[in-house]
Extracellular solute-binding protein family 1 (candidate division WS6 bacterium GW2011_GWA2_37_6), 322 residues
Amino acid sequence: STISRKSFESAFYPIVNSDLVRDGQPYAIPLGMDSLALIYNKDLMSAKGYTTPSDDWTELFEQAQNLTQKTATGTTYQRVGLSLGADEDSNEFWFDIFNLLLMQSGVQMLNSTEDAAVFASDSATQDAVEYFQSYEDEELWNASVKKDVALFLEKKLAMYIAPSWRLLDLVAYNDTYDLGLDIGIAPLPQLSSLEEEQVGWSTYWAQGVSIDSQYYKVGWDFLNFATQQEQLRLVFEHVTEDGTRAFGQIYPRKDMKSEMDSNEYLSVYADEVSTSKGWNMVDGGKVRDVFKEWLNSEIDAEDAQGQVSLIITDQGLLTSEP
């Protein structure tokens, strides 16, 4: 790129620097960021005596147990406490949630040269798997449950882990159809509420310019321009000015985070972005397929590790030079 490593590092969040810098140079740049937060139905929570979701995963599980309600036959759910399971038809963002658990557990996913997966032998990996699977094992969720976004809109889901773009849909539907949902937004739990380090998980698109393009410099000059504070601020104001959209994207620049802190919808998400960790999975779609088999006990951790290693070596890693 035509942006120096120093200016890139000083302006953008640590996760962006970790993800998008190769050989000392940025090779892509985000125009916006997203992360995960705990969206919850305040009325369903308060009916069981809860003010907010817990900031500890173990306590959150207990809340989900108390909030889950089955039919008289016990075969279907009248209400789900928290939707969590490896099936995107029901739990839309399960892959992000599971990766978050791995990052919070401190699991090293790849070796130092990032050409092989090494997560299988870490006991913390198994802890993350067991926690994730416990929602289905303890019958708080199964794959027959309706997709979480629909369930939440029907007031049959108490807590929902999702990015801000999905929250935007919830707010819009709630207002348009006068659903009467009282929506709360809480930070994601940590593995222990006593731990000092907070770890989040970010999701975002990044834009780049082909190094073979005759417009390489012009393209990067435009991206540099588009990610300046003034331009990002103008876009945010433009998409929200007529009132049809509740909020814009989280700014990708850490030097603009203070502007998100007072936003009733995005402050929690911006906090998560600032503490996010990740790993270079190279092809997220293929890794998702492997993890789905793993979490559904079709393969074990060693098999999953081997398949992820193959994905990494087959696809290769991006470099900033031809």
Remarks:
- The first strand starts at residue 21 and ends at 22.
